[in-house]
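#help-structures
NK: newbie question, is this the right format to request a structure? protein is Small-conductance mechanosensitive channel
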Amino acid sequence: MTINFDTLKASLVLYGLNAIYAILLLAIGWYLSGAMQRVVTRMLAVGHRVDPLVTLFVSSVTRYGVLAVVGIAVLQLFGIQTASLVAVLGATSLAIGLALQGTLSNLAAGVMLLLFRPFHIGDDVEVGGKAGKVRSLSLFMTELVAADNTQILLPNGQVWGAAIINHSAYPGTGEVKVTFPVRAGSANTLADQILKELRDDPRVDARTEPSVNVSKVIAADPAAPVVELTVSAKVKPSDTDAVKQRVLDHASALLAAA
């Protein structure tokens, strides 16, 4: 077998030049991807309206998108047909997407939450049947801290697809209103004790006097008259449930003692 050195030399020169072009293209692509990442980061950081986590995510996607295009161009320099490769990668991505559709839905929901910001860190919210203070928000999970200092982790897909009650959205006061039946003879005593308890509670708005009064008569039997006692007070929206529970516990203890 004879070797055609001229053909071999031409092939080596051709592939050598392609290798040099590929290295140059990779270097330019690497620099260009980093530059694009920095440009996107600066654009999204203007005004501080976009969450840093979203900025990092979008800039990273931009960088790797540029590198993917450069990689395909390098393969084409060596005569590799990239059409079939792109088709295989597309089919693989589809299969991975179907297998991880729950995770990807949480990712998409996390991006939407970070963009639209229905709540902020420190807000008191109710979402997905859970209530607590927002501790953190990532691309996949929302972390709440319950009133008893318990950690609650919610997938972002459940948060974005559920009704969100934000008690901290509108600053102001909420109202506690509790009604319960008592014997008419002990109504005044219970009212005074509950009123004293509310005045001593620092969560009750001091600018508005709480009230405890008889709202209606339930049973007018002279032997055992029963009236309805209504307790109302102004508190912060986040303290409404806690103060209401305290009033009910205190009233139950007083009724049991009576």
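mod (FA): yep, format's fine, and the tokens are attached above. The domain at 118-166 is CATH 2.30.30.60 (SH3 type barrels.).
NK: thank you!
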